[in-house]
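Chapter summary example: a protein plus pyridoxal-5'-phosphate.
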Amino acid sequence: MLGQLPERAPDKILNIMRLFAEDTRPGKIDLGVGVFRDAAGRTPVMAVVKTAEARLLERQQTKGYIALAGDPEFHAAMRGLVLGAAVAADRVAALATPGGTGAVRQCFEAARLANPDVRVLLPEPSWPNHASILDTMGIAWASYRYYDAATGGLDRAGMLEDLARTGVGDLVLLHGCCHNPTGADPQPADWAEIAMVLGQTGAVPMVDMAYQGFGDGLEADAAGPRLLAETLPEMLLAVSGSKNFGLYRERVGMALAVCATPAEATRAQALLAWLNRQAYAFPPDHGARLVTDILTDPDLRTSWTTELSAMRELMNGNRRALAQALQAESGSDRFGFIAGQRGMFSLIGADPAQVAAMRDEDALYMIGDGRINLAGLTPETIPRAARIIARHLR
Ligand code: PLP
Ligand code: LMR
């Protein structure tokens, strides 16, 4: 039987991670997988996480099971972080999941149970795993126009036109902030338009929130999703704690279902817990507990927001520095858009052959679609990366 297993090509993003690890050339630069790195090129455990872990080690008396949906205190803390006061708590069902990816999967599972014929609309482009998970599940999906490669911004008119063609039964996936892979986000006025259009068509939004705090700040980054929650009767959210708490391998995530009524939220809550039971029973707790402690202890929370701000400023500083270096190297403004985008990623407009050449000839690694991770740069590597990019994209 197992000899009949189909072949599966490695994941494109994770394959770059492997190729980079195997490269023995000195001076190699990794702008591939979306992992934060500090100015020294490390992905450190956040100091606040170390503190919370030390306290937890002292305090924790049991590792017994908690609840299928995870700890209600974790639900409340994450719901508050993402949605603020946008919607009454009794209209929101919450599910702890293994990472944001687990939340994405459980949101899709719930949507399909609600509507077996659900169609998912993905921005073009999107995080490749969205389409991959949908294909694996056999759920139909289509793209809506999103990115304008000519400006490095949003194709606002195209997006709104495509969203206006959605209807009841459709699920529209939106990145809450720091769009992966483009770094191009809707502005507040765009979010208002999106809310209006979806309100007219009856399609339900699903927000993937993997980078809150990496763009303009914790509140600013959540403004779009909160506006949708305030305006529309229903919405799904997939939240990740991997990046903004640096808890990648602990697998911190949460699926939230904003329902039209408290009664519907109660039903959704039971359904979500059942989905966890079918997949892996109890969700991981360690990272979720650290996040809960950090968000609910005022001192820890202050430390966290300070550390997170420094991470954000480092990435935005790298954006400005790279845009400037590219302007000097290329003698043009064609890469100026990088400075104004947000989050970890930008598309530099390289085709797969150029990406391969930069990797093979100059040990500069990025994803095949030309996506770079801005956090992979340091003050030392920016001039060289700019030189390589400008030369290959001449
Ligand atoms: N969604 C997007 C857009 C992402 O970029 C990621 C990657 O980090 C995730 C979801 C899920 O991340 P994780 O499963 O590591 O929490
Ligand atoms: C990325 O896009 O590089 C990250 O989100 C990591 C991943 O799981 O793909």
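Key point: DSSP finds 14 helices and 13 strands in the chain.
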